[in-house]
Each structure stands twice: as C-alpha cells, then as structure tokens.
Design goal:
Chain B: InterPro entries: Haem_Oase-like_multi-hlx (IPR016084). The complex is a heterodimer of chains A (65) and B (329). By secondary structure, chain A is mainly beta. Chain A is built from no helices and six strands. The chains are: A mainly beta (65), B mainly alpha (329). The complex binds FE2/S2 (inorganic) cluster and fe (ii) ion (FE2) (2 copies).
C-alpha cells in the first residue's frame, strides 16, 4: 500500500509546517524530535529554539524613533 | 450582603446585588426566581461575577449546587440579560469592520518598545508580581481550551478538523500529565500557590473575570462562532512572544522548572497553533461562511480590548506600588 502523502506548507517569511512526528537533523548533527501534530520549522534562522520556529521571524517596528 | 467563601461554601463571595442573587438561588433547588440586571455596569465586578457563576454551571459546577441549574430557564433568561449588556459593551468599544487580514497583520507586527505585562515583568517586575499574575491567569488556565471546545460542533470541514487538532495539543495530545491546564497546575504548585480549580476567584478583579467570560460567551453561542474563532486566533498569535518574555523573566527570578515549562511549551506550541488557526480554522471558516468575517474581527478586537483593560488594571496597581489582587496571596 502506498504511504499517505505528507503535507508540508510553506509560509511566506515564516516557518515551514510539517506534519509530525518528525526528527529534524540540524547542520551541526543534532537531532530534534517533535511529536506534535504539526511542527513549525524555522527558516529565518533567528529562532532561539532553532530548528523550531519561535515566532522570531515576525516583523518588528520601533515606535519611539 | 452575605459574604460567601468559595473554600467553605463552594461559591465565591458576592460583589453586589446580581452576584448575590445568583449565589443565593444556587443554594436553593433549581426554579427559584431571579432579579433583572437593571443598569448594572456591564464590565463591573458584580455583573462579571454573576456571569462567571452562571457559566461555571456548564464547566465543573459548584459543590453542593443543584446540577439542574445548568438548564434552568429562569437562570438562562437572567444570564441572557447579562450577556446582552456585556456583548453590547464590547461592541460599543471596538472599531469593527470585516478586514481579517488587516487585523492579523497588526497582531503579527511586534511593536518596540513593548508596554504589556510581560514587558514589564521582564524589565523590572518582581517575583511577587509574577505570582499575582499567576493567580489572575489561574481562572482561565485551569480550564485552558475548554471554552473553545464548545465551538467544535458548530464548525465543519477544514476549520473543524484543524481546530480539533489544536485542541488535542492543548489537551496534552492524549496524555493527562501534558494537558496545558495540568502544566498550569504544576506551575502554581511550584510557585507555592494553590492549584485548586477557581481557588483564586475571590482574589481577582472584574477585568480578569471579563477575559474568561468573553470566551465562555463566544463558546456557548453558536451565533458567535466567528467571534470564538477570531478570539482563539488572536490569543494564539499573541501568546508566543509574550510566553518567551515570561520565560526570560522567570529565568531572572531563578523560578522553578515547572513554572518555566508552561511558557516554553507555549512558545513552541503556539508558533504552530497560530499558523493552523489563521490558515485552516479562520481561513476554512470564512471560506465556508464568508458572512462571518465581521464576527471574526469582533472576536479579535474584543480580545485585544479586554486584554488591554486587564493589563491597564494590573500595571496601574503595580505602578502605584499596590497589588492587582483584591485579597493577599
Ligand atoms: S521562521 Fe519562525 S522563528 Fe524562524
Ligand atoms: Fe495552551
Ligand atoms: Fe495554544
């Protein structure tokens, strides 16, 4: 039987959403496991919890300048 | 006015004629008559507590209260009059419209320097203030995700499947010890607070009760399903960054791991929930029912409004050197 196709959604200027559970292999050889139903993978490289998105990709505006 | 204590009688202490009337009748068998709300302040402590008492009958109920009150026509009629005042007050104070994308864009931009509660706590808050905030939020977080569960049968297709997936995550993915409400109970215990359900209801002001009553009202009315979904999306969008600041503040206080875990779990979870809510739940709902766009916007704006009222109350109290609670912890 064919495996069900895994859905991956790409967010413009944001994370890639992958159906969990997944193991994420980072360039430095670490493996981060997530068994959430959906996993937001950071593409902006600003996340403090890289490779998981922590919303650091969001636009920031200074109101005091 | 009779002062009732939730810890001995199972019911919170009354805060005026409306909440006193509800507390009084709840001690009687279902069917006892109730007053008319008159010109009560829709966002005041008395009306908000009366509403919270009515809603709680649909959640866990109160020890010693006749469970038939939940569907008592008199009490439901009374609640409907309170809700009309509450909803009217919210609608009067929001700007309205139907531009969901515009509302989301606003929420997705981080304004610096920020001025909210988590900004204060991370910059120069105290551990005592942190514990006060824990007590305020316990009214909601100990029933985290429950108000949103009511919307499930009112949705269909993509919106329904996606909302249920997020709720599954909120309820610990099938593991009771990972339920977000349970993580919050662990946080309270670790902070030396009481993790009892509604334990702090007598401590919290109207502004705190209003944030939870809004969710219950949106959840219990099919008519307001758009507002519930808008509220849920707004909450998920704003939680991530604030949870991150809370964790930073907690690190500064060398807080117990269980306190920090509640927030780090939310940084990770809500980065996902936000996306699912925006695209699949809100997106799916307005695709199926485009006429609900204005209600979605109402839910987003009402959430922002009541969260702002809450933050104003708490920061106002702290800035004048006082406590944001009505009773000491
Ligand atoms: S994509 Fe979200 S933090 Fe990088
Ligand atoms: Fe949660
Ligand atoms: Fe969430």
């Amino acid at each position: 039987m064919a495996k069900p196709t895994r859905q991956v959604s790409l967010e413009l200027d944001g994370p890639v959403l992958v159906e969990g559970p997944v193991d994420l292999r980072t360039p430095d050889g670490k493996v981060v496991h997530s068994d959430r139903f959906m996993v937001a993978v950071c593409t902006c490289k600003r996340s403090k919890t890289f490779p998981l998105c922590d919303t650091s990709h969001r636009r920031k505006v200074r109101d005091d300048q | 006015m009779t002062i009732l204590d939730v810890r001995t009688s199972g019911l919170p202490a009354a805060r005026g004629p409306l909440s006193e009337a509800v507390a009084e009748v709840l001690r009687e068998p279902a069917g006892t008559a109730l007053p008319t709300p008159g010109d009560a302040d829709p966002l005041g402590a008395d009306l908000q507590l009366a509403l919270a008492l009515c809603y709680e009958l649909h959640y866990q109920g109160f020890p010693g209260v006749d469970p038939r009150w939940e569907w008592d026509p008199e009490l439901l009629g009374f609640r409907a009059r309170l809700e009309a005042l509450f909803e009217g007050a919210l609608r009067d104070r929001v700007s309205g419209g139907a531009d969901i994308a515009g509302e989301f864009d606003d929420l997705l931009v981080e304004h610096l320097p920020g001025s909210g509660l988590s900004h204060h706590l991370v910059a120069d808050g105290t551990w005592e203030q942190m514990r006060e905030l824990f007590a305020h939020r316990s009214i909601y977080h100990l029933k985290e995700a429950d108000p949103h569960a009511w919307v499930i049968p009112r949705l269909s297709g993509v919106a329904k499947a996606a909302l249920v997936a997020v709720e599954f995550d909120e309820y610990g993915g099938g593991r009771a010890d990972r339920m977000h409400s349970r993580l919050y109970a662990d946080l309270l215990t670790a902070a030396g607070l009481d993790a009892g359900y509604l334990h702090y209801v007598d401590h919290v002001p109207a502004a705190t009760l209003a944030t939870v009553n809004m969710m219950s009202m949106f959840g219990l009315h099919r008519r307001l399903r758009g507002a519930l979904v808008g509220h849920f999306a707004a909450a998920e969008i704003t939680t991530g960054p604030s949870a991150q600041r809370m964790d930073k503040a907690l690190a500064r206080f060398d807080a117990p791991a269980a306190c920090r875990f509640f927030y780090t779990e939310h940084v990770e979870a809500d980065a996902v929930h936000e996306q699912v809510l925006r695209h699949d739940v809100v997106g799916g709902l307005v695709e199926a029912e485009p006429e609900l766009a204005a209600d979605v916007v109402f839910g987003i704006q009402a959430t922002d409004l009541l969260e702002q009222d809450f933050a104003d109350h708490v920061l106002g109290a702290w800035n004048s050197g006082g406590t944001s609670l009505l009773l000491p912890l």
